[in-house]
Amino acid sequence: MTVPQFPRDFLFGTATSAYQIEGGWNVDGRRPSIWDTYTHASPRRDTGDMACNTYHDFQTDINLMSVLGLNSYRFSVAWPRVLPEGRGQVNAKGLDYYDRLVDALLVKNIRPFVTLFHWDMPQALQDAFGGFAGRETASYFADYAEVVVRRLGDRVKDWITLNEPWEHAALGHLLGEHAPAHHNPWTYLKVAHHQLLGHGLAVERIRAACPDARVGITLSLTPILPKTDSPQDVAAAKVADQFFNTFYLDGIYKGQYPDPFWSQVRWLHPHIGADDMQVISRPLDFLGVNFYSREYARAVWWMPFLRFWVDGDLSASGEKVVNGMPFTASGREVYPQGLYDLLMYLKREYNNPFLYLTENGAAFTDHLDGERVHDEKRVAYLQGYMDAAAHAVRDGANLHGYFIWSLTDNFEWSLGYGTRFGIVYVDYVTQRRYVKDSGLWVKEMICGQTG
Ligand code: IFM
User: Fold this and answer.
1) pLDDT at 139
2) Is 412 touching ligand 1 by the criterion CB < 6 Å?
3) Is residue 1 part of a domain?
4) For a substitution probing ligand 1, which of 314, 411, 421 has the most ligand atoms within 8 Å of its CB?
5) What pTM did the predictor assign?
6) What is the CATH number of the domain that holds 413?
7) pLDDT above 60 for 433
8) Residues 11, 402: contact at Cβ < 8 Å?
9) Identified catalytic residue from 22, 146, 333, 359
10) pLDDT digits (tens, 9 = 90+) for 112-139
11) Is the CB of residue 36 below 6 angstroms from any atom belonging to ligand 1?
12) Is the C-beta atom of 290 inside 6 A of ligand 1?
């Protein structure tokens, strides 16, 4: 294989999130999050009750990371483990868990990147304020951030406030596919704005608690193309891009929400405080980019306010090939060129921000064959996307690390455990791990760095 080459100090890591791997949902003082409530509401849903059991054993996975040569790890802290009611009383046992996890990573020379919110809103805050639909939650989030940073900030220097605010707002509050499963455009915009406000408030508190912290946010960025060349579809794609991407990018980097999207949804605007946009656009040390694929938008008359529709369906299942383009088991087109284009777009349009690719990876149908998993499609996927990233770095993109989603198979939200993203296979009955061929490929790729 030709090994994609990256600069000498480039970070190679994997990413996970608390609810998707930890289990231990009701032990040591942790109280429910909206995901516990949502998954327990129907007997047909997989739950995160056990997940990959890392609350009880993280060492096995840290040893695996070390064997694979990974030098960084992105994980998230479960808000309801640290503050069971979302605010107020701190749960010492919850914080102790992350303390031990960080120490164990550092023993293996693995640099921790900590995400503070990866969608597991404490149920108590959901009940009291509607989660981020309530403006108060932005302040409670900043308080929580400070609690965690005060405890871990002597060893953890890389902090990510939010993971994918679009997904939490849209899948959870507009499209009803994620907890808390609402369908409300007003709530969507409140949640979107208040998450960003919480992010900005937290940035200040993190810096105060840990002056040498490097602080960023992770956005999922999905290039949007018009379905046809018609002026209607071109205009629709612009609004779609603003809805998915530049609402967040422009809020953070320009301190304003983009038009025409923002005017089109004027009837839904939440209250925007006089200083909100200034708080939201506080300078960051890095932008975390989660990239999977592109989407196509077309103009439709029946979609209120937005007037566009995107045909891709993230919950579509089954691998397929359409017009020669392969799709993953979670319905995403395999399109590595999109990563190159996105990194160059950020360089051009957002003044070349310091970047980490905080997630990229793929679900495919994996089979355990003895002790092996021959996931050649995932190997090809990673090779393609890493080649694209390396190419962008050569062309001046300010990219400093690549975190594969994910280390192990885990709880893939509404798709449950059937959708496997890991470079390490998990037998959920025994909790045994099996390094997939993609994991071995990653190890070889890291060993083959000549920089
Ligand atoms: O599993 C998710 C993760 O929680 C957020 N980004 C996308 C991943 C794969 O779908």
Assistant:
1) 99
2) yes
3) no
4) 421
5) 0.98
6) 3.20.20.80
7) yes
8) yes
9) 359
10) 999 999 999 999 999 999 999 999 999 9
11) no
12) yes
The letter for the amino acid at 110 is: I
Is 70 exceeded by the pLDDT of residue 314? no
Quick check: 60 and 32 in contact, CB under 8 A? no
Arithmetic mean of pLDDT, 308-319: 71
CB atoms within 10 A of CB 198: 27
Q: How far is the CA of 231 from the centre of ligand 1 (A)?
A: 33
The number of folded domains in the chain is 1
Helix (H, G, I), strand (E, B) or coil at 298: strand
pLDDT tens readout for residues 341-400? 999 999 999 999 999 999 999 999 999 999 999 999 999 999 999 999 999 999 999 999
Q: Which domain holds residue 389?
A: 11-447
pLDDT score of 311: 79
User: If you measure from the C-alpha of residue 266 to the centroid of ligand 1, how many angstroms do you get, rounded to a whole number?
Assistant: 30
Position 316 pLDDT exceeds 80: no
Quick check: is 17 in a domain?
yes
CA-proximal residue: ligand 1, atom 10 (nearest): 412
Residue 4 in any domain: the answer is no
Task: Using a pLDDT cut of 90, give the percent of the chain over it.
Answer: 96
Alpha helices in 130-282 (DSSP H): 135-152, 165-173, 185-209, 231-241, 247-254, 261-264, 276-280
CA distances, 18 to each of 9, 74, 112 (Å): 27, 10, 14
Query: Average pLDDT, whole number, for the chain?
Result: 97
Beta bridge partners of 372: 369
Nearest CA to ligand 1 atom 4: 17
Between CA 100 and CA 105 the distance in angstroms is: 9
Q: Annotated catalytic, 164?
A: yes
Ligand 1 atom index nearest CA of 413: 1
Q: Ligand 1 within 6 A of 425 CB?
A: no
Q: Give the residue whose CA is nearest to atom 1 of ligand 1.
A: 412
Average pLDDT over residues 73-102: 98
Nearest by Cα to 161 from 222, 100, 35, 77: 77
Q: Is residue 3 part of a domain?
A: no
Active-site residue, selected from the candidate residues 164, 167, 295, 333: 164
What was the pLDDT predicted at 312? 67
The answer, yes or no, to whether any atom of ligand 1 lies below 6 A from the CB of 359, is yes
| 17 pocket-lining for ligand 1 (C-beta < 6 Å) | yes
Residue 89 Cα distances to 6, 60, 100, 106, 201, angstroms: 45, 31, 21, 28, 20
CA of 411 relative to ligand 1 center, distance in Å: 9
Ligand 1 pocket member 120 (CB < 6 A): no
pLDDT at position 320 is 86
